[in-house]
Amino acid sequence: MVYYKLAQKIISLLKNKGDLCQKELSKKLPKINRAILTGYLRSMTDLNKIKCKTHGMTKVYSLKER
Fold first, then answer.
1. What sign does the CA torsion over 37, 40, 42, 44 have?
2. SS3 at position 35
3. How far apart are CA 47 and CA 23, in angstroms?
4. Which of 43, 46, 51, 54 is most deeply packed, by most CB within 10 A?
5. What is the pLDDT at residue 30?
C-alpha cells in the first residue's frame, strides 16, 4: 500500500472532525497499520503541521493554528 497521501488524509480529517486521538484516527483510516499511523503523527508533530496534547495516557491531535 502506498502511504504518500496519508498526511493529507490526516490533515483533512482533523480539519473536518476537529481534535481526534490516535484510536479515533485509526478507526477513520481502517486500512492503515496503527504503527505506521503513529510514525506519521509523530513526524507531522515534529514538522509543526499538527499539534499534540496529552490527556493522561491519551494523545489528542489537532491542526496547528496559522
1. negative
2. helix
3. 21
4. 51
5. 86
**What would be the CATH architecture of the domain defined by 6-63?**
Orthogonal Bundle (1.10)
| Nearest Cα residue to 20 out of 49, 45, 53 | 53
Taking CA atoms, 49 is separated from 13, 30, 36, in Å, by 13, 22, 17
- Residue carrying C-alpha cell 490527556: 55
At 1-57, the pLDDT tens digits run 445 689 999 999 999 999 999 999 999 998 889 999 999 999 999 999 999 999 999
**Who's near 1: CB < 8 A, 6+ residues apart?**
31
Q: Three cell numbers at 34?
A: 496503527
